[in-house]
Design goal:
With 562 residues, the chain is α+β, with helices and mostly antiparallel strands. Helices cover 42% and strands 15% of the residues. Among the domains are: 220 residues, Thrombin, subunit H (Beta Barrel); 72 residues, Serine Threonine Protein Phosphatase 5, Tetratricopeptide repeat, CATH 1.25.40.10. Pfam families: TPR_16.
Length: 562
């Protein structure tokens, strides 16, 4: 993965071809749109400072710089399961808590939880030294103890290390797994045999229609809370890059890999295959049709865990001639051809983070932001230790809504994980700084920008954003130093000249402010706010004729925008 990350980083740094132009609100983050006054031009009485815009979005989607990969950090264990009460009986409320009648929805969930509690197990996979190497959820699907779960728990990458598997029921009972019948990486179906042969199975619901979004419940078992049952919505992904996966989202528990997705009647419609480790979660599931087909067949002889499939490993995927050819095609910017190859590769290797990441990158190049976002979510679900994939996820999220703000915290969470695992990622730090500005957390934004200017001191736009943040913090000397550095590095940067004018206005220096605003409108004649501020500066200097002409230009530019 590290080698691949180094190769794909320059691709990400380029603006995707064929995408929509960057909106003016992104390119001009601190200039408000001031409506033109009707009739005879009238000069404003006060230009105001600083312009306080809370929806700043960093304009930098083009960044050149050396990318370095660091050793991967340990994955954090994100515990997202909500408290179980009041869904199941037997939970004791804290002392002094008044009784609260359950709503019909809560009663329905409680009834369903009681119905399926005996059928769901937590699964832990161990190596010969007693180290846990993976964990997830499963459910009994036959009376004699066959457990259905997802193959992600027994990926070929770790299969050779598996020594034994244990299961824990919602009531705390523990059993070992005796062996397995099937572990299919493509369909995701894994059938394990529990040592206990007297179980309560869940019924499968194959041929469920997922064309329209439908309500469901996600089941998981938590050591701290026992059985957890949460509401969610599930729907087939209709995108080209959907490849048969279901989009699964909700506001409570994301469950875990292998969690059954239940209908209101308690039948298994699907199984979670990928868990995106974010607070604003979206998981991906596979319909249970393949599992139902396998259970209808004559069961193959049980095999020991030592026979679990150990191929293809991630390195084998990256060395596949088809993968190498697809990657070379993408490097040559033959994006549509590369995307066709990558779709086929991802069908062949549906649990390869590299395939999903490159497929998402191709979608980004083609301007298909929703598809790119979908793919990058799968990439980070499969390899949450890859900082580059978190970077690409945040990038895709920002491009999904270029005219406004993302509708969740997903981009910020992804950027925080990107810089945690790739501390030298200049662009991720810059995007994170701009997100902190939008969130109103100027201290964190300033800290992030210090890191950017340390890593990339020659980057003019970082100094410009730093000036903006320092101005908002009322550190005008710091703002002046940063904007001067920005203009020293790029004298053709119109927004830096505009902010320089604001600073001179604040200092009571209309002569220098006039020069800065003139440079702004020379470089960007369509900047209405710069024309208005230029008019104001001229008026302060007593140059009424020039002030009136500048304000006429302001009105003309504003009227054209209507």
């Amino acid at each position: 993965m590290l080698c691949l990350a180094i190769l794909t980083a320059p691709l990400l740094a380029q603006q995707p071809g064929g995408s929509a132009p960057v909106p003016a609100a992104v390119l001009d983050p601190i200039s408000p749109n001031v409506p033109a006054a009707p009739g005879e031009p009238a000069l404003p009485q006060n230009a105001g400072f600083p312009v306080d815009v809370n929806n700043y979005e960093n304009p930098l989607l083009l960044f050149q710089g050396e990318k370095r990969d660091l050793p991967m950090a340990d994955e954090e264990n994100l515990e997202l399961l909500p408290p179980i009460s009041p869904y199941l009986p037997g939970e004791q409320a804290p002392a002094g808590t008044p009784d609260k009648p359950l709503t019909p929805e809560e009663l329905e969930l409680r009834s369903l939880g009681a119905k399926v509690a005996a059928s769901v197990v937590g699964i832990r996979v161990w190596d010969e030294f007693g180290n846990q190497i993976s964990s997830g959820i499963g459910c009994f699907v036959t009376k004699d103890g066959v457990i259905l779960t997802d193959t992600g728990l027994l990926h070929p990458e770790i299969a050779e290390k598996v020594d034994y598997i244990t299961t824990t029921g919602a009531d705390g009972t523990n059993h070992k797994v005796a062996g397995f019948y099937l572990a299919d990486l493509v369909t995701g179906v894994t059938l394990l045999q529990s040592e206990t042969r007297d179980t309560t199975p869940l019924e499968l619901a194959p041929d469920t229609d997922f064309a329209q979004e439908r309500a469901c419940h996600v089941l998981a078992v938590s050591e701290k809370r026992g059985l957890v049952l949460a509401d969610a919505k599930v729907q087939m992904d209709p995108a080209l890059t959907g490849l048969g996966w279901l989009n699964l989202k909700g506001t409570d528990s994301p469950g875990a890999v292998g969690s059954p997705v239940l209908s209101k009647a308690g039948r298994v419609m699907a199984v979670v295959g990928m868990k995106v480790p974010l607070q604003s979660w979206m998981n991906f599931a596979l319909p249970c049709d393949a599992a139902a087909f396998e259970l209808r067949k004559n069961r193959a002889p049980m095999q020991p865990l030592s026979k679990l499939p150990q191929s293809p490993k991630l390195r084998e995927v990256a060395n596949d001639p088809e993968f190498v050819a697809a990657f070379a095609t993408l490097q040559q910017k033959r994006v549509e051809s590369a995307m066709r190859k990558l779709v086929q590769l991802t069908r062949k290797y549906p649990r390869s983070a590299e395939c999903w990441a490159l497929l998402g990158l191709s979608a980004t190049y083609l301007g298909a932001s929703p598809e790119a976002l979908n793919c990058q979510r799968k990439a980070v679900a499969l390899d949450p230790k890859a900082g580059l994939y978190w970077h690409q996820l945040a990038f895709a999220k920002l491009r999904e809504s270029p005219g406004g703000l993302p509708d969740s915290t997903e981009d910020r969470e992804a950027l925080e994980l990107a810089v945690e695992q790739r501390p030298n990622d200049q662009l991720a730090w810059l995007l994170l700084a701009s997100r902190h500005v939008r969130d109103g957390d100027l201290g964190k934004a300033d800290d992030a920008l210090r890191r950017v200017t340390l890593l990339a001191p020659g980057y003019a736009q970082a100094h410009y954003l730093q000036a903006y943040v320092r101005g908002r913090l009322k550190d005008y000397d710091g703002a002046q130093a940063a904007i001067s550095q920005s203009l020293k590095l790029n004298a053709g940067y119109s927004e830096a000249w505009y902010y320089q004018g604001l600073l001179f206005d604040k200092q009571g220096n209309p002569g220098e402010a006039t020069k800065a605003y003139r440079n702004t409108v020379r470089l960007r004649p369509t900047h209405p706010q710069a024309w208005m501020n230029l008019a104001y500066a001229y008026k302060k200097m007593g140059r009424e004729t020039e002030a009136r002409e500048a304000f006429k230009e302001h009105q003309k530019r504003t009227m054209k925008g209507k």
